[in-house]
Amino acid sequence: MSRATGTKPLAPASNRRRPDFSRRDTSLVELMDDPRCDAALLDATYRDFRVINALVSGWKDVYRSRIRPRLSATRENTLLDIGSGGGDIARSIARWAHRDGYRLSVTGIDPDERAYAFAASRRERPGVRFEAASSRDLVERGDRFDIVTSNHLLHHLDDAQRADLLADSEALADRFVVHSDLERSPIAYRAYQIAAWPVSRRSFIHVDGLLSIRRSFRVDELARVAPAGWTVCGQKPFRVRLEFDAAARRRGGSHA
Question: Could you give the C-alpha distances from 177 to 19, 59, 142, 168, 231, in angstroms and in order?
Fold first, then answer.
């Protein structure tokens, strides 16, 4: 739930009216995106990401079906996680790859110094590093990675920021890009509202998760704004993925 760029959040809107799920409500701003938010609650939110993402993000399935088939068994692989937040997704992918016998070096980046400080303060995992940087910073210094990922990032971005992220992703990836996010749905909203209630008073995770759902795309909406060469697909339950097959683009072939 971290942004790829360091731009200021959009102006907030009231969260008291009954949610309208017929459209994205991009006026909403998550509490953790406020630079003046409570630091202790923010750290608690980063800690809660590990549990919430394990329950709702579906990254184990994404790793098995989209990432693992593209890893080389004969050399070290590299992966970039953009907007890495608390770092739990980066660490999880590294752990799964190591378990499966692959050599994978994972870099997590976030322009928010608070996110970087939290992620870097956690117990180190071999092959995982974090950096306070944006995707544009890495493009400008010429970095390249086999795989590029992000989690719960797309819904934070306006049209120009999303275009910049996707252009940066194409420039950074040698094999594959997958940006995974929530899919807006009243059922998803209600289910999350109930499931996350037990932790609602100890962090921002409950309120911000609900705001994230209301800001998120549906599959058809994301497909309408996806650039040429990008593929949009749904993932159960209540997930949407935006993918780019860089290797196929270089071969001039179809997207897998």
Answer: 32, 14, 17, 11, 10
Give the mean pLDDT of 80-96: 97
Q: For 99-116, what is each residue's pLDDT tens digit? A: 999 999 999 999 999 999
Instruction: Classify 242 as helix, strand or coil.
Output: strand
* Cβ pair 86, 113 in contact under 8 A: no
For residues 239 and 204, what is the distance between their CA atoms, to the nearest angstrom?
A: 21
User: Dihedral through CA 52, CA 165, CA 39, CA 35, nearest 10?
Assistant: -140
Better-scored residue on pLDDT, 44 or 256: 44
DSSP line for 184-240: --HHHHHHHHHHTGGGTTTSSHHHHHHHHHHHPPPHHHHHHHPPTTEEEEEETTTEE
Which whole-number Å values give the CA distances from 57 to 12, 156, 171, 178, 247, in the listed order? 25, 16, 25, 13, 25
Identity of the residue numbered 8: K
Residue 1: which of 113, 166, 161, 153 has the closest Cα? 153
Question: Whole-angstrom Cα distance, residue 202 to residue 205?
Answer: 8
* Lowest mean per-residue pLDDT among 4-8, 170-174, 220-224: 4-8
pLDDT in tens, 148-165: 999 999 999 999 999 999
Main-chain phi, psi angles of 124, to 5 degrees: -65, 145
Which domains are assigned to the chain? 51-181+218-251 (3.40.50.150)
Percent of the chain with pLDDT over 90: 84
Q: Are 155 and 147 in contact (CB under 8 A)?
A: no
215-237 per-position pLDDT tens digit: 999 999 999 999 999 999 999 99
